[in-house]
Write a structure and sequence with these properties.
This protein has 11 helices and 14 strands. The protein has helices at about 10-20, 35-50, 95-110, 135-140, 160-165, 195-200, 240-255, 295-315, 335-345, 360-365, 395-420; strands at about 55-60, 65-70, 75-80, 120, 185-190, 205-210, 215-220, 265, 270-275, 285-290, 320-325, 330, 355, 370-375. The model has no long low-confidence stretch (mean pLDDT about 95).
C-alpha cells in the first residue's frame, strides 16, 4: 500500500514546543495528572483537536477524546497520555497523543474518510499519581469501578471524584465511560521505547510483541532500634541490613529465574526508622516491583521473592511482612495487530524489528476489550522518566508515519473482513 498521508514536520515540532510550556517551573518537564499544568495542557489539546476537524468531548473518566467520522458504536482508536511523572520527560506518552493528532490533521488535509469513525484519546492519569492509576484507560476497559474510587486522594489534596470532575469527567457514574467488547475495533499507540534495544541495534522503530506485567508490593522489616555504639554486631537486629540483603537478592532472582532476559526488578522507595546516625535501624518499609513479559517467569519471580523475605527474616531474627498491592499479568499483543503494524513497516521500507515492552502502557489496559498494536521509536540511551529523556524529531516523524500507515492498514483489514 502506498503512503498517502503527508506528515508535516514543522507542525509537529510546534506541537511539542507548545506542550512543553505547560509544565511545572519548579520541576523540569513535570505535568502531573490533575495538576494545573495538566488542565492547561488539556485545554490547548482540545483546541488542537477541534482545529483538526474533530468533535471533542470528555467522557465520564475525564479522558479527552476527539472523534472524526459519523455515528455508530464501532470505532478505530489511537492515543496515549500527556501526563508525566515528576521531572519526567517530554516524550513519554506525549509522542502518542501528538502523533494521533497529526494523523487526524492529515486525514483532514487529504479529505480521507475511513470505514469507521476514528477517536484519538489523551487518557487520564496514566502515570502513578494515584494508587488506582492508570485511571482513564482502566475505566474504559471496566477495570475500575465506582467503589474503587472511594478514599482515593490526589497529591493535591482533592478526592479523585473532584479531580475527575474538574478535568471534565463525571465521577458520579464512571461506568458511562466503559466500552463494550468489540466497540473499539482496533487500538494503535505510538510510544518511545523507554529502553535501549533499538538504539543499540541502530534501528529507529520497532513492533511491540507484548507488554510486561508489573507486580508491585511493599516489604516491612521490623528489628530492634538500639544504641549504635553499645550493641555488639552479633547481637543486632538491624532492619536496614535485612533490607539491603533483599535489594541484592532481587537483582539475583530476576536475572536467574525463568526467562530471565524478560525480567526486571526494582526497589524504588525505602523508609528507614528511626533514621538517626547513632541508632540501629529498627524498621524499614520498602517498595518492590518486578516485571516480566513472560507469565510463568513472573509467577516464579514472585514466589522466589516471597521465599527470600522469609529466609532473610529467619536469618536476621527479625519480623517481616510482604504485601502485594498490585498484581498484573503480562499482555501479549495479538499477532493480527502485529501483522497490521508490520505491513506499515514494509510499506515504508523500514527494517522489521520485534521487541517486548517492559514498561506498561494504556494499550495494556484496554487490551482486554480490543486488539491493540504498538509502534516503538528509539530514545536516547534508553532513558525515560527523567529530564534527560530524548527522541529525535526524525524518529518522531517516522513513528507518526508508521502510526498513520498502520491505521490505513487496519482500515483495509476491517473492510476485507467485512466483505468476507
Amino acid at each position: 500500500m502506498d503512503e498517502i498521508l503527508e506528515i508535516k514536520r514543522e507542525r509537529i515540532e510546534n506541537d511539542f514546543k507548545m506542550l512543553e510550556t505547560f509544565t511545572d517551573p519548579e520541576a523540569p518537564w513535570t505535568r502531573r495528572a490533575f495538576s494545573s499544568q495538566n488542565k492547561e495542557a488539556r485545554k490547548w489539546l482540545a483546541d488542537q483537536f477541534r482545529a483538526a476537524g474533530l468533535d471533542v468531548y470528555n467522557d465520564a473518566a475525564s479522558n479527552l477524546i476527539g472523534r472524526r467520522g459519523g455515528e455508530g458504536d464501532q470505532v478505530f482508536m489511537m492515543g496515549s497520555h500527556s501526563d508525566t511523572v515528576i521531572e519526567g520527560g517530554r516524550f513519554d506518552g506525549i509522542v502518542g497523543v501528538l502523533g494521533a493528532l497529526e494523523i487526524a490533521r492529515c486525514l483532514q488535509d487529504s479529505d480521507i474518510e475511513l470505514s469507521l469513525p476514528l477517536e484519538i484519546v489523551d487518557f487520564t492519569c496514566e502515570e502513578p499519581t494515584v494508587p488506582i492509576s492508570p485511571v482513564g484507560s482502566r475505566i474504559i476497559a471496566g477495570d475500575i469501578t465506582q467503589k474503587d474510587l472511594e478514599g482515593v486522594i490526589t497529591p493535591f489534596g482533592d478526592t479523585i471524584h473532584k479531580a475527575i470532575d474538574d478535568l471534565g469527567g463525571d465521577s458520579s457514574d464512571i461506568s458511562k465511560a466503559k466500552r463494550a467488547l468489540g466497540q473499539i475495533v482496533g487500538y494503535l499507540e505510538l510510544h518511545i521505547e523507554q529502553g535501549a534495544v533499538l538504539e543499540k541495534e541502530e534501528l529507529a522503530a520497532g513492533i511491540v510483541t507484548a507488554i510486561a506485567g508489573p507486580c508491585r508490593g511493599t516489604v516491612q522489616f521490623i528489628g530492634q532500634p538500639e544504641h549504635a555504639g553499645g550493641t555488639p554486631m552479633p547481637d543486632r537486629k538491624d532492619a536496614l541490613v535485612a533490607a539491603a540483603e533483599l535489594v541484592i537478592a532481587i537483582e539475583k532472582i530476576v536475572t536467574t529465574t525463568g526467562m530471565s532476559e524478560e525480567n526486571v526488578g526494582t526497589v524504588g522507595w525505602m523508609n528507614v526508622s528511626p533514621n538517626m546516625i547513632n541508632v540501629i535501624p529498627g524498621q524499614v518499609d520498602m517498595s518492590v516491583e518486578v516485571r516480566s513479559t513472560d507469565l510463568e517467569s513472573l509467577v516464579l519471580v514472585r514466589k522466589s521473592l516471597e521465599e527470600e523475605v522469609e529466609k532473610i527474616s529467619e536469618k536476621r531474627k527479625i519480623e517481616s511482612k510482604l504485601t502485594w498491592d498490585h498484581l498484573e499479568d503480562p499482555v501479549p499483543l495479538p499477532l493480527f495487530m502485529q501483522d497490521v503494524v508490520k505491513s506499515a513497516f514494509t510499506d515504508l521500507s523500514i527494517p522489521i524489528k520485534y521487541l517486548p515492552s517492559r514498561a506498561s502502557h494504556d494499550a495494556a489496559r484496554i487490551a482486554p476489550i480490543t486488539p491493540a498494536g504498538m509502534v516503538f521509536i528509539r530514545c536516547l540511551e534508553g532513558k525515560s522518566h527523567c529530564p534527560e529523556e530524548w527522541a529525535s524529531m526524525d524518529d518522531i516523524v517516522l513513528g507518526i508515519r508508521l502510526l498513520g500507515q498502520s491505521l490505513l492498514r487496519l482500515n483495509e483489514n476491517f473492510l476485507k473482513n467485512k466483505k468476507g
